[in-house]
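Subject: Re: docking follow-up (2-acetamido-2-deoxy-beta-D-glucopyranose)

Dear J.,

Thanks for your patience while I sorted out the input files. As discussed at Tuesday's group meeting, I've set up the holo structure prediction with 2-acetamido-2-deoxy-beta-D-glucopyranose included as the bound ligand rather than trying to dock it afterwards. The sequence and the ligand SMILES I used are pasted below, so you can double-check that they match what you have on your end before we go further.
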Amino acid sequence: MHVTSTLLAAAAAFSSANAASKGFNYGAFFGNQQAKQYVDFKYEFEAAKELPGTNGQFTSARLYTMIQHGTANTVISAIKAAIDTRTELLLGIWASAGSAVVDNEITALKNAIAQYGPAFTDLVVGISVGSEDLYRITPTAIGNGETNPGAQPAELVNYIRRVRDAIAGTGLAGKPIGHVDTWTAYDNSSNAEVIANLDFIGVDAYPFWEVEHDNSIGHANATFYDALQKTRNAAQGKPVWVTETGWPVSGPNQGNAQANAENAGIYWHDVTCSLLSQGVNLWYYTLQDVQYGQPVPSFGLKPGGDLKAVSPLFDLSCPAGFKPVSYLFPLTLSPALSPILLLLLYSPLLFYLIISSLLPNPRSCPSCNCNRNYRSSETILFPSQQDGNYFRWIARTNRICEDGKCQFKT
Ligand SMILES: *[C@@H]1O[C@H](CO)[C@@H](O)[C@H](O)[C@H]1NC(C)=O
Ligand SMILES: *[C@@H]1O[C@H](CO)[C@@H](O)[C@H](O)[C@H]1NC(C)=O
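The structure tokens for the complex came back this morning:
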């Protein structure tokens, strides 16, 4: 029993180290400019993990700033909320408001490290210096009414160096430093020097806005992947993370693009589900954006009201098979782990996991929707909790769909 749980812990640790980030973007304030407090962030992070049809996968939070809204340089309360909910963090340094604000961001970053230590730093998957600052200085943005000054490439390079210096020798040393911008900013060779200074590239891409092309929902998947490919081409071999994408649930049309929940559901099904299945780091835009405000268009997959009580506006389950548990292969092949290789190979549990991973169409989702009656036998990853730690276990089970309801029986 002890050996089994040790193996489970090893497998879980490895899978969580290797698993892609999946989450949402979290602003620092509500639609009425009211600052989000600890309880608000905590509620949002919990609600993301409870989203029906997603199997608790949305456990990562991208922030835009380290500063509590309305203060000079107080640590944002999202940090404590993330610690208390075990939420992964893609940190943000706001870089479109000049050098002095970047100093305040760095002060808050250092204070968070000093105050919370590893409970904080262990949750951090990366730090983005800036968000769409290069987009803001383009003629397109200014033509769209952008008044925020953004940042020049040379300024961003300077900010990136300052953040690198600030985390050297701290618990965040070695965490990847990146930048978030629109795909068009990376596709612009004038910004190559910024890319050269990064560890990861965060890309924002919204086919909805691409009125230069046919931007109807039927073309959205192709337009998104075209933008992702152009970003990868410009990325100088660095990993590309999808830091924002989504389709609006309401608002005026843009060219051929219509903002409604049905199209947002199609976008989720095509783009979000395919990114999840490929293991691409993804922060969707967004969970809820209408609280105490009326954004036009609105991208929130949940309507206004009590975030945990209201239902998503479209089905979030991904019907196609998710990625198999291939993380087990590197585990057994890693030279560092070779001393336990034999033990692992002789473990019936691991043997079963490897065999399971070879079976077709594994599902990661114990909940399901169905619109026709059927029975099938499938391999499913279930999340489970033991002693406060999350494990995944795998079971062969029968999916039974009857009258639109779906259940799993072993
Ligand atoms: C390309 O990038 C440069 C530097 O960021 C910017 O000044 C310029 O406006 C961009 N060009 C276009 C067409 O967006
Ligand atoms: C979306 O595009 C990607 C990349 O070309 C492709 O792999 C995927 O099958 C497409 N999905 C849909 C639903 O068309």
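A couple of observations from a first look. The pocket of 2-acetamido-2-deoxy-beta-D-glucopyranose (ligand 2) is lined by residues 221, 225, 270, 274 (CB under 6 Å). The mean pLDDT is 84.

Let me know if you'd like me to rerun anything.

Best regards,
T.
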